[in-house]
Design a protein that fits this description.
about 475 residues; alpha+beta; Beta Polymerase, domain 2; Hypothetical protein af1432; 4 domains; binds adenosine-5'-triphosphate; binds magnesium ion
Length: about 475
């Protein structure tokens, strides 16, 4: 087992001062699974102020008896190490926070207040090896892929109802099953999740969403009766059939879209949008059977999405982005059929920075419908049009000189000639961008004075053709970039 030197040093230092110290919790579980721990936690019988005294580079915020020690490590996971004094938790009258947290005398007490057996192991660091302290058969459960509460699951979920969601989270990210008695206790106590702060619920929800199999996590939340207290709107789609264009009910389709988004490693916002994009369908459904309709589901769905995410205390930026994705997920696009100006309008509504995610959502939606393809050609073509309408136009506005300058130098009146001169200058600048300087261009205008009317016209026509060529080449390059013809 690879235990970093920084961790060993902290433990040795505590031992030298006469204190016990162990690596504990999630990091022991991860080490035994052969994974790199996300963070390292140490537990000790030293009291916070004693820890602080031993490690001058540390701070104590008087919260949960945890002292944070700063190390000199370059590894971000090892820069701050949390050391927590052995704790036990007393009564939870509000099902949220322990009424008070008490110091414990022994490691045994500390381990028994932890949530699941796989999270309740400690590691004693000896001279050359390490010994696992496993009082609740966590290693066996790890081997059998089982999430099992430490002690009586009913009591444990009554103390802290978030543990029920943590059970689902660990089962989802590790692809474990929840042991029977623990599972039954969740089903019976699911309603207690309502007592938990929305922020804590959101954080667990996001860990499920960002896992490899988030659809399984959502389905587990539903089966255990938790979903209806967390995001009941998702459950409204359960068993709600669609129409002749769909083979799955609304709920199943949403989960399959989410599944695809995760398979494609799409980001958190796209995953949530995939789960939510049809959330309003049950509410706007008209009729039954093959001709049922869902008019305005994207508009009602965007409103619902906004409210749900607000309720779950998401950051405003994410709320707005996901809401937009849901609002515009139905955009219509067909090669040659949809005009550039309607694409321009879509880009304006959704924001250029969100277009990639909107297209990803569309792919997730398509695959989640059970159709064989995610429309790759059509979407690539749309990407091409999006880029095309978003490019800066090639125009005389790019020049560092304007019509007034031309009028002044040539001493002519405003008229078509001014535009023709600028067009000639533009062709120069396109073939040599370094020429786009006021002084250089002024000199070029001076040179035009010496041309005859016929020579000027020829030069102007040549310039027009060159500009057209550049525009065509740029268009071809954009097409090549997206593999469209
Ligand atoms: P991750 O870091 O991936 O979220 P973790 O298991 O390390 O997983 P943390 O929230 O970091 O979870 O908590 C560290 C340890 O503290 C857990 O492994 C567990 O032993 C204990 N713990 C955390 N939350 C609770 C809780 N709500 N009830 C009981 N014990 C908990
Ligand atoms: Mg952790």
């Amino acid at each position: 087992m690879k235990i970093p030197k920084e961790i060993k040093d902290i433990i040795k230092t505590l031992n030298k001062e006469g204190f016990k110290a162990y690596i504990v919790g999630g990091c022991v579980r991860d080490l035994l699974r052969g994974e790199d721990p996300e963070d390292w936690d140490i537990t000790t019988d030293a009291k916070p102020l004693e820890i602080k005294k031993i490690f001058p580079d540390s701070f104590y915020e008087n919260k949960f008896f945890t002292v944070t020690v700063l190390t000199k490590s370059k590894n971000p996971k090892l820069k701050e190490i949390e050391i927590t004094t052995f704790r036990k938790e007393s009564k939870y009258t509000d099902k949220r926070h322990p009424d008070e947290i008490k110091f414990a005398k022994t490691l045994e007490e500390d381990l028994s207040r932890r949530d699941f057996t796989i999270n309740a192991m400690a590691l004693e660091v000896l001279n050359k090896k390490a010994r696992v302290i496993d009082l609740f058969n966590g290693r066996k459960d790890l081997k059998n892929k089982t999430i099992r509460a430490v002690g009586n699951p009913y009591e444990r979920f009554n103390e802290d109802a978030l543990r029920m969601m943590r059970a689902v989270r660990f089962a989802t990210i590790f692809n474990f099953k929840i042991e029977k008695e623990t599972e039954e206790a969740i089903i019976k106590n699911a309603f207690l999740i309502q007592e938990i702060s929305k922020e804590r619920i959101r954080d667990e929800f996001l860990k499920i969403i960002n896992s490899d199999f988030p659809d399984k996590g959502i389905e587990m939340l539903r089966k255990l009766g938790l979903l209806k207290f967390i995001i009941p709107e998702i459950e409204e789609g359960y068993g709600v059939s669609q129409n002749k264009h769909h083979i799955y009910d609304c709920y199943t389709h949403s989960l399959l879209s989410l599944k695809y988004a995760a398979e494609k490693k799409f980001n958190q916002n796209v995953r949530i949008a995939a789960l939510f994009h049809d959330i309003a369908k049950p509410r706007v459904k008209k009729g039954e059977g093959p001709d049922a309709t869902f008019y305005n589901h994207e508009i009602v769905g965007a409103k619902m999405t906004y409210q749900i995410l607000k309720r779950l205390k998401f950051p405003q930026k994410d709320i707005e982005k996901i809401t937009k994705l849901v609002r515009y997920h139905l955009f219509y696009y067909n090669v040659g059929e949809v005009s550039e100006s309607s694409v321009r309008r879509l880009v304006k509504n959704v924001g250029l920075e969100n277009m990639e995610e909107l297209l990803q959502l569309r792919m997730a939606d398509r695959i989640g419908s059970g159709v064989p393809k995610a429309e790759p050609y059509k979407l690539r073509h749309l990407k091409y049009i999006i880029e095309k309408v978003s490019q800066d136009p090639i125009s005389v506005k790019m020049l560092k000189i304007n019509g007034n300058d031309v009028i002044e130098i040539l001493k002519i009146k405003p008229g078509p000639k001014v535009g023709e001169v600028l067009t000639i200058l533009l062709s120069y600048v396109l073939s040599d961008p370094k020429k786009n300087k006021k002084e250089v261009l002024k000199k070029e205008v001076e040179k035009l004075k010496t041309l005859s009317e016929k020579e000027f016209k020829e030069l102007y026509e040549k310039a027009q053709k060159e500009i057209e060529d550049v525009e065509m080449k740029r268009d071809q390059m954009t097409k090549q970039k997206y593999w469209v013809v």
